Amino acid sequence: MKFNEYTTPMDREYFGSSGADDLEQPIIGVADMGQTVSEGSRVGGSFRDTIQAAIRSGARSVELSTQMEGSDKGVGAEAYGKEAREELRELQRANDIKVVSTHTPTQIGNLSGYTGPERGFDDDTRKRELDEVKKAIQFAAEAAGGGAVVVHTGEFARPISEQKWAKDDSGEYLFKGYLEEAERAIIPIVDSRTGKVVDQVRKNQIVHRPEWMKNDKGEYVNYENEVVGIEKRVPVFDSGSGRFKVREMSWADFEKEAEERNKLKEKKLGRSLNEDEILTTEEAFLHAQIESNVGHSKGWALQYARGFEDSKKNLEKLKKAKEFYDKLDESLPEEDKWKIMKESSSTFGGLLPSEYKPIPEILADQIKKTRHEIESAHEASVSQEQQAETSALMGKYAMPVDRYAKKQSMKSYAEAGITAMEQSNARNTDRPVFIAPENLFPEMGYGTHPEELIELVHNARKEMVKTLTHKQIEDPSGKLNVEGKPVMVNNPHYRGWNEKKAQKEAKEHIRATLDTAHLGLWWKYFEPRTGETRDDRFKRFEGWYMDQIKNLEKADIIGHVHVVDTMGMGDSHIPAGQGIMPIKTALEYLKEKGLDASMVSEAFGEGPARQLTKTWEHFGSSIYGASGPVSPGAPTRFSDVHQSYFGKDRPPYYVFGAYSPSNDWTLWTQVPLE
Q1: In this structure, is the dihedral angle defined by the CA atoms of residues 654, 657, 660 and 664, taken in order, positive or negative?
Q2: Tell me, what's the pLDDT at 658?
Q3: pTM
Q4: How far apart are CA 664 and CA 326, in angstroms?
Q5: How far is residue 213 from each of residues 73, 265, 291, 334, 615, measured CA to CA in Å?
Q6: Residue burial 311-348, b: 16+ Cβ < 10 Å; e: rest
Q7: Of 561, 584, 642, 575, whose CA–CA distance to 615 is shortest?
Q8: Are the C-beta atoms of residues 88 and 55 closer than 8 Å to each other?
Q9: Residue 26 has what pLDDT?
Q10: At 478, phi and psi to the nearest 5?
């Protein structure tokens, strides 16, 4: 069945023209809009069954939403063997439809390996989820003949209010995760060696730091009034109290310290800092804690070391004294040995009586004690030195969560893009296979905001280009050399291509999925203005919504669209036009700008009967039939389909087939029933 070709040789127009030619053609027609289909016992079987059901409802294109293997019997990309995949291809050809996209299991939420703030980032998790994406890529190449491979984003958790896009040009907040988020946001710090979260900085946390000595020019000086760098600065000593001065430091103070450190670093390097070199406020906060820990450990290390030197000197004196008294003891006759007896010191504050012992024995006891003191001193001092070095090393490898996560995500997306390129070429697909990250719910993290989605796709493309054109890449384990720079290793994906060719491939195989409802979910975080009504606030939000659509179009990243509406607070998957978002305006704008992307309705929330028809209706498409005596010459629109019998308010004139009564039953008049 093709709803974009309404007339067939079997149609009988009893009462003139159907009127199809009299209507304005919609910008987005029936053939432009497909639907999602899933698999499993809950939805009625395998993709073969659900695709056929979609065809019967008039769909010209579909998205296959795969389920996680093991979640149901016979589901998942690898549940379809060679013959089953070929059958799906034949099903498309026989019915003149397209599988335009394949959705990875919804359990996949990121490609960074992020497992939450407790565990941080896990390489095994990242690999498992990337492997699921690769399965879907191969399935899309072999069973669908190409198209988008959709994967949910949410690469890492981040406070909404702390992002650069959270404020407008005037500095007012556009978005907050919750009312107090701007003051109480928690920002994780990650160890780049392990991916573990080593600290979580809370913005409202107050810490105490030394007040540093400075000269009249504002330069750091030591106690001899010599100018020193920021690493050698010393605290001010208050001779009156006999203590070093400390002061409270807030988040704003650490913002200033980060700015100061960045300026000093720029001055030292003689150039502007790149993004990876800029010290963030949370890093400045962490460095303050690290400096405190290092100073504490080094202080105790010096204290123990000082006792160590004294004990060593005493040990040498005691050994010489014992050597002297041992010789004297050997030379004395037994009756004179009392002469080298001495009262040992009393114990427990004189509560126990003193003892008389030979001096060599007393010295031996003292030597034993001194050796213990030496062992204790060097063990304690070395331990404190180790703690100081470990803390200092943490400062070298610690980095903000976004910097670490983005590296991991870009690495995964570049690898997925290369896999999509290889599968497209190997299977000679009808259309390129491309990885298509989808903007998920705002609270899911990085990648869900349009600016983040643009950044993700552009940086993933750059990473793919670098991977295809560089013989060596940074060690995936994150190792650094003695200079603190990444260790380089041979690149297994190196092709020897020039950048222009690699850029073309990256752009073709890494694009984005725009979900119109997920974009609308930013409404629940949209900050109201003082005295603003809800209607005024929503009008302002609609302006923001359309601005994001325009930015996405200019960025040239959209390769696939999920058409679905929302009331703004939840992902209920209702048809376009049944929610409150300006979806029609947005998609018509994209279409007028020449957007070349597949579109599918994900509006299954109100049931399969309305998933496509209500979406088609919202975009101005009509359903036509042979004119009847009720309304001759008038088209039957989709709005007439629901709540009625395809536009008729009376029963049909005749019935046939299974609906017709048995011949065993007749009217009492004996009139035959046709």
Answers
A1: positive
A2: 55
A3: 0.81
A4: 132
A5: 71, 20, 16, 68, 69
A6: beebbeebeebbeebeeebeeeeeeeeeebebeeeeee
A7: 575
A8: no
A9: 79
A10: 85, 20
Residue 591 to residue 605: CA distance in whole angstroms: 26
DSSP assignment of 381-393 equals: HHHHHHHHHHHHH
What single letter denotes the amino acid at residue 349? G
User: Distance (Å, rounded) from C-alpha 167 to C-alpha 182?
Assistant: 11
Q: What pLDDT, on a 0 to 100 scale, did the predictor assign at position 624?
A: 53
Instruction: Name every residue whose Cβ is closer than 8 Å to that of residue 70 and which is 6 or more positions away in sequence.
Output: 76
Residue for token digits 């998933």?
Answer: 611
- What pLDDT is attached to residue 3? 45
Helix orientation angle between 534-555 and 450-469, rounded to the nearest 10 degrees: 20
**158: amino acid identity, one letter:** R
The answer to whether 461 and 491 are in contact (CB under 8 A) is no
CA distances from 662 to 248, 654, 658 (A): 92, 15, 9
Neighbouring CB atoms inside 10 A of 1's CB total 10
d(C-alpha 222, C-alpha 500), whole Å: 55
- 42 Cβ contact partners less than 8 Å away, ≥ 6 residues apart: 72
The pLDDT value given to residue 354 = 72
C-beta of residue 568 within 8 angstroms of C-beta of residue 519: no
Is residue 340 within 8 Å of residue 360, measured between CB atoms?
yes
pLDDT at 659: 53
DSSP structure class, residue 349: G
Structure tokens at 591: 């279409």
Tokens at 266, concatenated: 């720029």
Residue 600's beta-bridge partner residues?
34, 562
Choose among 208, 75, 174, 268: nearest CA to 537.
174
Q: Which residues of the chain have pLDDT under 70?
A: 1-24, 345-352, 478, 484, 622-674
Residue environment code for 616-653, b if the CB has 16+ CB neighbours within 10 A, otherwise e:
bbbbbbbbbeebbeeeeeebbbbebbeeeeebeeeeee
Contact 332, 412 (CB under 8 A): no
CA distance 633 to 19: 6
- Sole residue written with tokens 């309305």: 610
- Cross-strand pairs, 486: 480
Count CB-CB contacts under 10 A for residue 350: 9
All domains in the chain, ordered by first residue: 20-167+401-521+557-576+597-618 (3.20.20.150)
* CA dist., res. 307 & res. 264, Å (int): 39
* CA 216 to each of CA 225, 230, 261: distance values in angstroms, whole numbers, following the listed order: 11, 16, 20
Tokens at 279, concatenated: 């010290």
Q: How far apart are CA 127 and CA 602, in angstroms?
A: 28
**What is the rounded (10 degree) CA torsion for 498, 500, 501, 502?**
80
pLDDT given for residue 671 in this prediction: 64
The CA radius of gyration of the chain, in Å to the nearest whole number, is 38
Position of tokens 């006792």?
307
Where b means 16+ CB within 10 Å and e means fewer, 493-503 reads: eeeeeeeeebb
Q: Which one-letter amino acid corresponds to residue 665?
A: W
For CA atoms 445, 450, 454, 455, the dihedral sign is: negative
Q: Quick count: other Cβ atoms within 10 Å of Cβ 551?
A: 14
Q: Which residue has the tokens 């504050």?
A: 349
Half-sphere exposure of 626 (CA within 13 A, CB side): 10
Bridge partners for 512 per DSSP? 558
Tokens of 7: 């007339």
CA distance 197 to 120: 5
Q: CA 624 to CA 647: how far, in whole Å?
A: 11
